[in-house]
């Protein structure tokens, strides 16, 4: 199993597509199993077959119907019961996840599954213990580019993500605030850095992959115990928050790095971002740029932060199984 994790808009989907281009790898959709369907613990409880099937059918629906679909998980019940029968007792949530991954990759004639859910970043400790043979790619991107991408993310529906419901644009708009995104970037990068010396974890800068694709992909393949294949880099240029999806354009776009320099962020947004992320920016080789915003403009963002945070929480609470624990991890505590 390979997990691709990182802050949202840090290139996790792109890396999932790249790995999915390998002959042995099947890349899943964002499964959102950990945290949304099951709150990870080191010692998971045993589940009865009915609860196991409830969990597994929803996981199957996320993969096959899409995350934002109108889910009818019971249609997978017969298949689910056969998968559960293959699991040795005790039946636990991590065992269910593994059994489904193995079932699905076998159906696609692959041998390795790749889950590209970004927020698994906050559960690296549990995942490393639950799946000791797994490998992890931790994506890191310049927080100013992450900020700009998050600011424009609500436009994705009209840029090519036609399957995304209209209310998701509202959710992503509500989720954007320079202070929120900067704090999440800081806690996310810190969560990944905790395991930088673990040989199962490969930390990859988005910008390095774009500027040195062959060298960096070779490094990733070595860490994932995969044979390097140059064709893995032949991915479609889709998923941007800034331009229309270009299905006919292939390969990595080096212009996606440093896009914030062309504009799109106010001085106040840049000031807030660099102030909150400075330490980890410097650790990962990002240069702090001289920028200064007026006290009035910064105060304006502070005033809107409480409102935007409350709205974002209200619109995202259904995606979180244990709210207190989720907030604790994102606050880095």
Shape: globular
Tally of separate helices: 14
Order of strands, widest sheet:
2-3-1-4-5
Strand percentage: 5-15%
**Fold-level CATH name:** Rossmann fold
N-to-C CA distance: 28 Å
Radius of gyration: 20 Å
CATH superfamily: P-loop containing nucleotide triphosphate hydrolases
Number of strands: 7
Largest sheet: 5 strands, parallel
Mean pLDDT: 92
Low-confidence stretches: none
CATH structural class = Alpha Beta
Q: What does this protein look like?
A:
Helices cover 48% and strands 9% of the residues. It has 333 residues and is α/β, with parallel strands linked by helices. It has a single domain, classed as P-loop containing nucleotide triphosphate hydrolases (Rossmann fold, 3-Layer(aba) Sandwich). It has a 5-stranded parallel sheet with strand order 2-3-1-4-5. A two-stranded antiparallel sheet has the order 6-7. Helix 2 crosses helix 4, helix 6 packs across helix 9 and helix 8 packs across helix 13. The longest helix has 22 residues. The radius of gyration is 20 Å and the shape is globular. The two termini are 28 Å apart. The model has no long low-confidence stretch (mean pLDDT 92).
């Amino acid at each position: 199993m390979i997990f691709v994790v990182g802050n949202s808009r840090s290139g996790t989907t792109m890396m999932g597509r790249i790995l999915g281009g390998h002959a042995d790898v099947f890349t899943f959709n964002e499964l959102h199993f950990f945290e949304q369907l099951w709150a990870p613990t080191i010692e998971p409880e045993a589940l009865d077959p009915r609860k196991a099937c409830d969990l597994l059918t929803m996981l199957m629906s996320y993969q096959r119907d899409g995350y934002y679909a109108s889910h009818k998980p019971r249609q997978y019940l017969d298949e689910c019961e056969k998968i559960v029968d293959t699991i040795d007792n005790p039946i636990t949530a991590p065992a269910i996840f593994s059994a489904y991954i193995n079932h699905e990759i076998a159906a696609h004639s692959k041998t390795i599954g790749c889950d590209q859910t970004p927020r698994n970043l906050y559960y690296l400790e549990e995942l490393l213990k639950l799946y000791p043979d797994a490998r992890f790619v931790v994506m890191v991107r310049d927080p100013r580019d992450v900020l700009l991408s998050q600011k424009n993310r609500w436009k994705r529906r009209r840029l090519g993500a036609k399957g995304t419901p209209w209310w998701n644009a509202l959710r992503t708009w509500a989720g954007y605030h320079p202070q929120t995104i900067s704090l999440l970037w800081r806690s996310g990068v810190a969560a990944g850095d905790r395991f930088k010396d673990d040989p199962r974890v490969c930390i990859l800068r988005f910008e390095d992959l774009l500027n040195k694709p062959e060298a960096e992909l070779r490094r990733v393949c070595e860490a994932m115990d995969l044979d390097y294949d140059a064709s893995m880099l032949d991915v479609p240029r889709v998923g941007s928050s800034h331009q229309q999806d270009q299905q006919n354009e292939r390969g990595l776009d080096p212009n996606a790095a440093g896009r914030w320099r062309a504009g799109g962020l106010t001085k106040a947004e840049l000031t807030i971002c660099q102030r909150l992320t400075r330490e980890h920016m410097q650790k990962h080789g990002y240069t702090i740029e001289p920028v200064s915003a007026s006290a009035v403009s910064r105060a304006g963002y502070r005033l809107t932060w409480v409102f935007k945070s409350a709205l974002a929480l209200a619109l995202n609470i259904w995606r979180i199984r244990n709210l207190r624990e989720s907030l604790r991890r994102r606050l880095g505590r």
